[in-house]
Amino acid sequence: MDWFVINLLNGMSYGMVLFLIASGMSIVLGAMGIINLAHGAFYMVGAFVGWTVAVKCGATFGLGILAGGLSAGLVGLAMERGLLRHLYKQPNEQVLLTFGFVYILSNVCLWVWGGWPRPPFTAKFLVGSFEIMGRSFPKARIAIILIGLILAVGLWWLQDRTRMGAIVRAGMDDKETTMGLGINLELAFAVIFFISSFIAGAAGVIGAQLLGVRTDLGMEVLLLALIVIIVGGVGSIQGALLGGILIGVIDAFGKAVFPQLAMFTMYLTMIVVLIVRPTGLLGRKI
Amino acid sequence: MKRFIILFLAIGLMVSPILFGGVGTAQAAKPIKIGTILNLTGPIAFIGPLFKNGIVMALEEVNYTVGGRKIELIPEDAAADMDVCLEKSRKLVERDQVHIIIGPLMGDAHMAIAPYLANKKVLTASFYCGDLELTKYKNWFIYPTTLVGLTAPVGYYAADLGYKTMITAGTDYAGGQGFIKGIKLAFEERGGKVVQQVWWPVGNKDFGPYLSNLKKADVIGYFVEGPSAAQLFLSQYHEFGVKIPLLGTTLAADMPDQITSQLGDSVVGLQGQALYMANMDTQMNKKWVADMTKRFGQTPGGLEANSYAITRAILAALKMTGGDDSFDKLWPALLKVKVETPQGPLSVSKEGIAITDGYIAELKKKDGKFYWDPIKTYKGVVDPRLKK
Amino acid sequence: MTAAPYLAIALILAIIPLFLSTYGQGLMTRFLIFALFAMSYNVVFGYAGLLSLGHAAFFGAGGYAVALLKLHAGVDLFWITAPLGLVVATLVAGLFGIIALRASGIYFLLVTFALGQMLYSLAWNVKWLNSKGMQGITGITLPDLGIPGLSLDTISFYYMVLICFIISFVLLYRLVRSPFGLALVGIREDESRMEAVGYNTWLYKYTAFVISGAFAGIAGILFAYYNFFVSPKHLGIATSFLPMVMAIMGGLGTFLGPVIGAAVYVFVETFASIFLPQRWPLILGGLFVLTIMFAREGIGVYLLRIWEKVSHRYGIAES
Questions:
Q1: Does B26 score more than 70 pLDDT?
Q2: What is the DSSP string of B59-112?
Q3: If both were cysteines, with which of B60, B167, C42, C185 could C46 make a disulfide (CB 3.0 to 4.6 Å apart)?
Q4: Are the C-beta atoms of B201 and B171 separated by less than 8 Å?
Q5: Nearest to A119 among B200, B226, B263 (CB)
Q6: How many angstroms separate the CA of residue C140 from the nearest CA in chain B?
């Protein structure tokens, strides 16, 4: 029984990080129809900035998360306002542009922070482990699960219970009518993109415990985000959450039971979902 | 019509640099050209400059001259990508006419470029071990020894400490499999028993599932494929409260100081295989460390020591051939090389594998600084499979 | 549309390498292979309008077929490996097409990505698909053409690739200009209208997908011989991005766009890396961004516009 619980917790903590990574990208994809391949790069930027604030400067972990989120959010906003804004209905161009940013941001991080990877870090009071059913489990991972849940609730509330969320959902379903109602969709989009990138950056700091801080995170995190979105579906917080947790847990149990097939379980899940429900488990129809 | 003239112009424009580049290399090269394939971008980008430093130091010591000929070093970036390694190899061989290549680091890249380089008769030296398979091409200088040979001391040491059962844990790719095999073969040679073999995929970040599912054993012999993986593994090992002692391989004790100092006190007392430590107590090493620190501004580690030793060996071979860098003269000369390096004595087996000493080191802390202390030496380490 | 300009370019491509070092010839070979890869992608992406992120699956499938034949059966004969490789790539495309076309828009992208990654994962994990001591298959040598006394070297291999390229070029060109190709453009522009008029749009898209995959497979076969090894990476997203980037950069939906994009990419990547070994990704990424912002329809089209302006100003006769 304890084997089961520990692996479940492992899966959930990884799953929460996946959720955080994917949620921003999924929302932007669903609400604005924008494919942002640089989303993983935003995660990376947030991780580096958060590291600098929390580890190098010694500020609190919370401040690190904030700093990470803000830096990524600003980079994202700049990219959106400056460049992406002109490419709204052109997925091809978006793809090339955002892909170019992956290269650029990775190299800039390499330039600024140097090529050696930073060790995982977390808040000082979270170092150490709990005793769960006779086994040790790191406090920091429990914290990740909790933070993830809180953010999930917060984002869901934003999506379903606020005017902003309603605008987003309306814009997703019918852009012309929404604009016709006098709603400033441009502003809404800028805000959404900022929030999405902010979450990515914050996730970079929260997830540093599990994924570390490296200059090649850009592509890697992008891949993870895509997998979660495929499984969970585009455009909803619930989808990203379900997708993330599902992948995380399957991955954890997969590693425990079939260690040599580790990555494979993720891809297999992806394919099964695709065959059964091509739009993802909770996806909106695009 | 005009559409295609423009295209012709465009293509012509793009092709012209090669045109001019190509023409220039027609004459025979007077200086000895040594190419090196380094990781300057990509996930382990910080390693490239370190390897280069070692090479540069060795070349500077002889004033870039051997056998009356000047030496020209041509560095290229491998971007930790096998395709790029091959492309760069082609460039070095076909455009720059090198006969000697130092690098690359990645084992996969070795196997990918080996057939090509053997065909072109280029003396190639791996930065950090190589698979025994490479010896069949008969142009590889494998330093400090094969994958399996490198980690054999870990297995021997575990047995020497009295451990009877072991779990091996390593990264599941050719390099990792080789390193783990070394620990296993050596441990079993001394009567130990491996009760569980845990493998995780390359690039794995989350060791939780693996650490939570370990059986009972006296010791864990592990390998992780890079400093970042080492950081993650070691910190999660502590988080999950695993009680079984660790014996690490390669990257464990060769972690450049930037990383060791970032992991904090949790890693003090860690023991592992090392092929070099800055504080090794020989006259030669002390001088080398001083020279390197003065020249590059930081204490050197195993990576620089490796590339330095490799370059020294190649220089020694070139001296023997009187500066002749053609493969047919150079290879037999290399096999006869015997030099002293900061890492200890170096000689070469008939397959082209270096024979060096392996060390077990322990991570200690003194006056707020971390350092690796050698606690045991295994002389003349050889791949256990070759002993038969 | 006269054939003369094309012949001129073919002639140039045939002659230039004679003046280059073997390294330069290798680069030209690489350029041709990627140009073919990008052209194949253009069929499904530029003409049919389907953004696929898994095109490397077919490229790699062709390459792996060649590699496996060499590894497990020691087969060097081009007349065996090439057809087999083509068959494999086409079958994979046929299978993936059925799965992928169940989705559309964003999901199509995600599905093709997933399928490509599945192959990547398989190639990584299954022992039979790897050489001893590495991930991937090494030891591929230049093909045997079965002509006694003729063995290939760098320059002759280049000509072989050039011939394959030209044949593929002609075939694809005819395809794109045919009623089939025009129908594809129609589907890209407005699928429901095409359906209303009675076209079986699914069949057209599927055919485009499979043909596209087949040509990618050819590129993959040639690549295996050029590269001397294949690795799982050649099946995954890192390689799938390449034809996409090249096609967009060069000019989507134009026939020569991808070729130009391939040229730009291959040469910039090579030389940036040689001259700026630590900063070259920045250059490449910057190039992508600049292309989108200033030459939105692709560098090829942009160059064309410049040419048109120049010729107009200098009163060069319209052809």
A1: no
A2: HHHTTTEETTEEEEEEEEE-TT-HHHHHHHHHIIIIIS--SEEE----HHHHHH
A3: C42
A4: yes
A5: B263
A6: 8
Which two tokens mark A218? 């850009």
Per the model's pLDDT, the better-predicted residue between A200 and A6 turns out to be A200
Residue B196 bridge partners (DSSP):
B167
Q: What pLDDT, on the 0 to 100 scale, is given for residue C1?
A: 46
The CA radius of gyration of chain A, in Å to the nearest whole number, is: 18
Where residue B16 falls among pLDDT bands split at 50, 70, 90? low
Q: Does residue B345 register a pLDDT over 70?
A: yes
Written as one string, the DSSP assignment of B257-284 is HHHHHHHGGGGTT-EEEES--TT---HH
> Where in chain A are the domains?
12-218
User: What's the distance, CA C219 to chain centroid?
Assistant: 6
Q: Is B209 in contact with A10 (Cβ distance < 8 A)?
A: yes
ipTM beyond cut 0.85: no
Nearest in space to A266 (alpha carbons), one of A209, A225, A233:
A225
pLDDT tops 80 at residue C223: yes
CB contacts of B213 in chain A (<8 Å) are 3, 7, 256
| Residues of chain B contacting residue A260, judged by C-beta atoms under 8 Å apart | 172, 199
Q: Give the integer Cα–Cα distance in Å for C115 and A272.
A: 11
Residue B367 backbone phi and psi in degrees, to 5: 55, 40
In order of B47, B181, B272, the CA distances from B221 in angstroms are 24, 10, 9
| A41 lies within 8 A of chain C by CB | no
Rg (CA), chain B: 22
- What stretches of B242-353 adopt beta strand conformation (E)? 246-248, 271-274, 338-341, 344-348
Is B5's CB within 8 Å of C24's CB?
Answer: no
Listed in sequence order, the residues at least 6 apart from C34 whose beta carbon sits closer than 8 Å to its beta carbon are C219, C242, C243, C246, C262, C265, C266
Give CA–CA dist B14/A286, Å, rounded.
42
Separation CA C271–CA C133 (nearest Å): 31
Question: What sign for the dihedral angle of Cα C17, C19, C20, C22?
Answer: positive
**With an 8 Å Cβ cutoff, are C105 and A95 in contact?**
no
Residue C190: other Cβ atoms inside 10 A:
10
pLDDT of A192 higher than 90: no
Written as six digits, the tokens of B191 are 């009567």
Structure confidence by residue, pLDDT tens digits, C106-151: 778 888 988 898 898 888 878 888 877 677 888 888 888 877 777 7
**The pair of three-digit structure tokens given for residue C225, joined into one six-digit string:** 């011989």
Q: Cβ separation of B206 and A10 shorter than 8 Å?
A: yes
**A129-133, B1-5, C45-49, C213-217: least confidently modelled range:** B1-5
The confidence score (pLDDT) of residue B1 equals 46
The CA distances from residue B190 to B152, B160, B183, B187, B219, in Å, are 11, 8, 11, 5, 15
A→B interface, C-beta within 8 Å: 3, 6-7, 10-11, 13-14, 107, 110, 114-120, 128-129, 135-138, 140-141, 210-212, 214-216, 220, 251-253, 255-256, 259-260, 262-263
Are A83 and C292 in contact (CB < 8 Å)? yes
> Does a cis peptide bond (omega within 30 degrees of 0) precede residue B332?
no
> In the predicted model, what is the mean pLDDT of chain A?
84
**Residue-wise over B12-48: b if at least 16 C-beta within 10 A, else e?**
eebbeebeebbeebeeeeeebbbbbbbbbbbbbbbbb
Q: How far apart are CA A81 and CA A85, in angstroms?
A: 5
Instruction: Report which of A35, A64, A191 is spatially closest to residue A122, judged by C-alpha positions.
Output: A64
pLDDT at position C319: 45
Which pLDDT band, with edges at 50, 70 and 90, does B312 fall under?
A: very high
**Per-chain mean pLDDT for chain C:** 85
For residue B363 the two structure tokens come to 């991570």
Is pLDDT above 50 for B385? yes
- Whether the per-residue pLDDT at B50 is higher than 50: the answer is yes
